[in-house]
TrEMBL record:
InterPro entries membership: CheY-like_superfamily, NreC/VraR/RcsB-like_REC, Sig_transdc_resp-reg_C-effctor, Sig_transdc_resp-reg_receiver, Tscrpt_reg_LuxR_C, WalR-like
Location in the cell: Cytoplasm
PANTHER family associated with the record: TRANSCRIPTIONAL REGULATORY PROTEIN YDFI, TWO-COMPONENT RESPONSE REGULATOR
Keyword Mitochondrion recorded: no
Gene3D superfamilies from the UniProt entry: 3.40.50.2300
Keyword entries, A-Z: DNA-binding, Phosphoprotein, Transcription, Transcription regulation
Name of the molecule in the record: Response regulator transcription factor
Top-rank taxon, per record: Bacteria
Annotated transmembrane regions: none
PROSITE patterns registered for this protein in UniProt: HTH_LUXR_2, RESPONSE_REGULATORY
Domain HTH luxR-type: 142-207
Organism: Peribacillus psychrosaccharolyticus
A single cellular component GO annotation: cytoplasm
């Protein structure tokens, strides 16, 4: 039997999905919670095979709850079941450690199949989620390295081409030297170069210096 914890603040949703899952010969819902904080507590106490997690809830949202569970129990398998498909929900939820992402518009049978697949180590994503991720990956891959720099990082890169040290950059931009060092490190990583000299060469090669 695949044990399931269902965390959702909509009672009618819990009742409907729980009834369907409990009727399956290989799935049992062992507990329910109506907010994220209670969900985290039950997850760590009961260690269910699968956790169904809503995103927008009182006390603690599903993203924070997922993150807290994964930090204490990295082996947990969490399926997001939500009405939201916007980027600020999808990507943070997956980054927090959710294994699968389903919509509440899915059929109960599809959620049951997602429970089985996730239990066996597979990741199940709604087609709309997959499409969004593929588009984001293609967009990211099509950009040149310097196009990933923030405005502040571009500003600092141009100061680097003038031979300014971290201290000089910090003084000119009225930021801490430590902050300047972090920006420089991020620039090197994004440009995929080893040191400041290579970063400066990159800037001139790509005509970033006016």
């Amino acid at each position: 039997m695949i044990s399931v914890l269902f965390v959702d603040d909509h009672e009618m949703v819990r009742i409907g999905v729980t009834a369907y899952l409990s009727a399956q010969p290989d799935i049992t819902v062992i507990a329910e919670a109506d907010d994220g904080a209670a969900g985290v507590k039950l997850a760590l106490e009961l260690r269910p095979d699968i956790i169904l997690m809503d995103l927008v809830m009182k006390e603690m949202d599903g993203i924070e709850a997922t993150r807290n569970i994964m930090q204490s129990w990295p082996e947990a398998k969490i399926i997001i079941v939500t009405s939201f498909l916007d980027d600020e929900k999808v990507y943070p939820a997956l980054e927090a450690g959710a294994a699968s992402y389903m919509l509440k518009t899915s059929k109960a049978s599809e959620i049951a199949d997602a429970v089985r697949s996730t239990y066996h180590g597979q990741s199940v994503l709604e087609p709309e989620v997959t499409d969004k991720m593929m588009k984001k990956m293609r967009s990211h891959a099509s950009k040149l390295p310097h196009e990933h720099l923030t405005n502040r990082e571009m500003e600092i890169l141009l100061l680097m081409t003038q031979g300014k040290t971290n201290q000089a950059i910090a003084d000119e931009l009225f930021i801490a030297v430590k902050t300047a060092k972090v920006h420089v490190s991020n620039i090197l990583n994004k440009l995929e170069v080893q040191d400041r000299t290579q970063a400066v060469i990159y800037a001139f090669q790509h005509q970033l210096v006016k």
